[in-house]
Design brief:
The complex is a heterodimer of chains A (278) and B (440).
Chain A lengths: L1 H27 L6 H9 L13 H10 L11 H12 L10 E5 L20 H6 L16 H5 L5 E3 L5 E3 L9 H5 L5 E5 L4 E3 L7 H7 L9 H5 L5 E4 L2 E4 L9 H5 L5 E3 L15
Antiparallel strand pairs in A: 1-4, 2-3, 5-8, 6-7
Helix pairs in contact in A: 2-3, 2-4
Chain B lengths: L24 E2 L5 E5 L9 E2 L6 E2 L4 E4 L8 E2 L4 E10 L5 E9 L19 H10 L12 H4 L10 E6 L8 H8 L1 H15 L3 E7 L3 H10 L5 E6 L8 H9 L14 E5 H12 L6 E7 L7 E6 L4 H7 L7 E6 L6 E3 L12 E6 L16 H5 L6 H9 L3 H6 L10 H5 L6 H20 L1
Parallel strand pairs in B: 1-14, 9-10, 9-12, 10-11, 13-17
Antiparallel strand pairs in B: 2-8, 3-5, 4-7, 5-6, 7-8, 13-14, 15-16, 15-17
Helix pairs in contact in B: 1-4, 3-5, 4-5, 4-7, 10-13
Classes of the chains: A alpha+beta (278), B alpha/beta (440).
């Protein structure tokens, strides 16, 4: 009985002394932080994706408050976040670039492209790519093991039944993670307003492309001739779009014989970013 | 007496008895040969012939001015019919010279030399470069570059690698038995070219007949023939140096830093052919084996012969093939296109039947540490595998991923059938590309 009381009192007294000490230390030794950093951090999406080029959201917030970064530096947050940060700092937003989303430039899934071998290594595109170039007939196309999907921190990608990744553009933040993960450089970031994409990266000649894939670019140059703004050029057996000149008129989609060029619903005709020579 | 060896390693099924007793047979050159312009580590060569040109046997068709590269020669006389990307054993298309054989084997003028050992060091090096010789054990590093170590490195040991530790392969074994004089002379020439005073020929003790023949022919005390324990990867460069000299090549280092240069049996014989006969490297001995081949054999094959012709020369497939591998079963490359040609460093064509190529799904790691026990590079494969799986490249580099020699012992021994080497190789690739990004 006696022992219990003594220990209760002594422990209680110790606890009291330490709590007073901590309370005093918290007031006396407090570091004056920039309150704006916390406010900016609150306004940021908080995914720590690193797309801004800084080590996470907090680091970006500190850099903006310190003047090393611009309020419009978060590509994930876009205009809304830039506006909030500008308000906190009391400065101009600056020009907010349009939101970028990932585009998968390959249409050759299981149904369209041939298999040349049976691959039974780990299900990872990067490994398949260094193991004899993988099992797909096309050495430029999507390997289909979903390394990009695994890399996406926002759940904006999914493998479809045809063995190709699908991007949910409403969830995509343009953080570049999938672009870095893809060993074949199939994924690119394009402004979300662009609704026409050439979904092929094969540099092989037309005949070789035809032998391994039904929907690959055969470099027939019909799109290049059809394009009113000169946005499409064919080089190294592959058509490529210069998005700065594209007006999303969809004329190339209609002439493409292999359906390589794809249009997306709900993206209207726009003005080109750069002046087009007549 | 305890045989010399290294720490770790595995004892796979060797199956060398399929071909070890069969003498080397020259295969008739096929009608169409595909000679890749890159068959070595380093810069590709540039074609110096055009489609339609007549070429002679031994004529240079791929020329180079790069520091690390090796010339390519025509393996037959005939006509160039195309220069275009063709299938390559690496799985990608490589620019190749396609030659139509006129079956006359007309040689270019050869610069023969009765007693090549009288040649000076520079002359030997020049002849090796002219002949386009590369390391014929598999890595295909240009020999003339390897014989000129950078800086003032003093080389005192030349090791000739006759261990042939890859299961199934017997090409080096047969070469040692059938041309021991050339092996000894080649070793002396290579030692002279690099300035080494001592020569060691290391042979695994499953080739006692070869040891006996070489012992009879060596004729000099500067050469010693050493029997090694039969264990994979005994022929790994660093493992062989450790076993024979006790020296350890430092991490991220190369053998010349410890005063040793290692060359393969095939390279020694090619050196003799280049200096004595003036013949460039246009053919090599290939073991065609495995239960998927009707008549396994050791063949002398011209460089550029498509794999399917080589298998045809051995009686074709025995039943339905399951897997065709270029090289040995441990480190070889599985093929999907049998139009790919034999190259300078191709030591074997191995065909497995379907029953032999059963695949297992990997199971969870039980931390039995067998991979650690067998790793000849003193690494922790299970740890490196996890780092590879979770993209932790810096950690993988800290744990010595770059010292991995990709021998595959860890994957071979794993009771859970995990793909350890695949992930380690991925980590190595990512580390190298990260370094490249940093440097650029």
């Amino acid at each position: 009985m006696n022992g219990t009381i003594i220990s209760l009192i002594s422990l209680g007294a110790l606890g009291f002394v330490f709590s007073v000490g901590l309370a005093v230390a918290a007031k006396k030794l407090a570091v004056e932080g920039d309150p704006r950093v916390d406010q900016i951090n609150e306004a940021l999406p908080g995914a720590n994706c690193g797309a801004c080029g800084f080590a996470g959201c907090r680091n970006f917030a500190e850099s903006v408050a310190g003047g090393q970064a611009q309020p419009n530096g978060c590509p994930v947050g876009g205009a809304a976040v830039a506006k909030k940060i500008a308000e906190i700092l009391g400065v101009e937003t600056g020009e907010v670039p349009s939101r970028k989303v990932a585009q998968v430039l390959c249409k050759g899934g299981h149904a369209e492209a041939t298999q040349r071998a049976e691959y039974n290594g780990p299900k990872d595109c990067r490994i398949a790519n260094v193991t004899q170039g993988g099992d797909k007939g096309c050495t430029y196309g999507c390997l289909g093991f979903g390394t990009c999907v695994a890399a996406c921190p926002f759940g904006a990608m999914e493998m479809n039944e045809n063995g190709l990744p699908v991007v949910f553009e409403d969830k995509c933040t343009g953080c570049n993670k999938c672009v870095e993960a893809c060993p074949r450089d199939i994924i690119i970031l394009a402004g979300e307003e662009y609704g026409v994409h050439i979904r092929c990266r094969s540099l092989a000649k037309g005949k070789e492309v035809r032998s391994v894939c039904q929907v690959g670019c055969i470099a027939c140059r019909r799109c290049e001739k059809e394009c009113p703004t000169g946005a499409i050029t064919v080089e190294n057996n592959l058509a490529e779009i210069n998005y700065d000149k594209c007006i999303v008129c969809r004329k190339c989609v209609k002439v493409c014989p292999t359906n390589t060029i794809e249009e997306q619903e709900g993206k209207p005709i726009i003005k080109p970013k750069v002046a087009i020579k007549a | 007496m305890k045989l010399k060896t290294f720490r770790g390693g595995v004892h796979p099924l060797y199956a060398k008895e399929l071909t070890s007793h069969k003498s080397i047979r020259e295969m008739k050159a096929p009608s169409i040969l595909v000679v890749p312009l890159q068959q070595h580590i380093g810069a590709p060569t540039k074609a110096v012939v055009k489609p339609g040109d007549e070429v002679l046997m031994g004529q240079v068709i791929g020329e180079t001015d790069q520091p690390v590269s090796a010339k390519v020669h025509s393996p037959v006389s005939g006509k160039v019919i195309a220069i275009e990307p063709r299938p390559h054993i690496s799985g990608r298309s490589v620019l190749s010279v396609v030659i139509e054989n006129d079956e006359q084997d007309r040689w270019v003028k050869l610069d023969t030399h009765f007693d090549p050992i009288q040649l000076s060091r520079e002359e030997i090096l020049a002849k090796i470069f002219e002949a386009g010789i590369v390391g014929m054990g598999g890595a295909a590093f240009p020999t003339s570059v390897k014989l000129k170590p950078p800086g003032q490195a003093k080389i005192d040991f030349l090791i000739i690698n006759g261990s042939e530790c890859e299961p199934y392969l017997t090409a080096d074994h047969r070469m040692m038995i059938e041309s021991p004089d050339d092996v000894i002379l080649g070793a002396k020439l290579l030692a002279k070219a690099v300035g080494a005073s001592k020569i060691i020929i290391g042979v695994e003790d499953n080739k006692l007949d070869a040891i006996k023949v070489l012992e009879e022919k060596k004729g000099s005390d500067a050469i010693s023939i050493v029997a090694l324990d039969t264990k994979y990867p005994q022929g790994g460069e660093k493992q062989l140096i450790k076993a024979l000299t006790g020296r350890e090549v430092p991490s991220h280092g190369l053998p010349f830093q410890v005063g040793v240069i290692v060359h393969n049996i095939g390279t020694a014989i090619a050196t003799v052919e280049a200096t004595r006969d003036g013949r460039p490297l246009i053919g090599r001995v290939v073991t065609v084996t495995g239960s998927g081949v009707s008549e396994p054999d050791n063949l002398y094959v011209r460089i550029g012969t498509p794999i399917k012709d080589v298998i045809e020369a051995c009686g074709g497939f025995n039943g339905e093939p399951g897997k065709v591998i270029i090289g040995g079963p441990m480190m070889g490359l599985a093929q999907f296109d049998l139009d790919a040609p034999i190259m300078k460093a191709t030591g074997g064509v191995l065909v497995f039947t379907q029953d032999e190529t059963v695949q297992y799904d990997p199971m969870p790691c039980i931390k039995c540490s067998r991979c650690v026990d067998v790793c000849p590079a003193y690494l922790l494969p299970l740890r490196l595998e996890k780092y590879g799986m979770y993209d932790l490249w810096d950690e993988a580099a800290d744990y010595g991923a770059m010292d991995c020699i990709e021998c595959g012992c860890c994957t071979y021994i794993c009771p859970s059938k995990r793909h350890l080497l695949h992930w380690i190789r991925l980590a190595k690739n990512e580390i190298v590309s990260a370094q490249r990004r940093q440097n650029s």
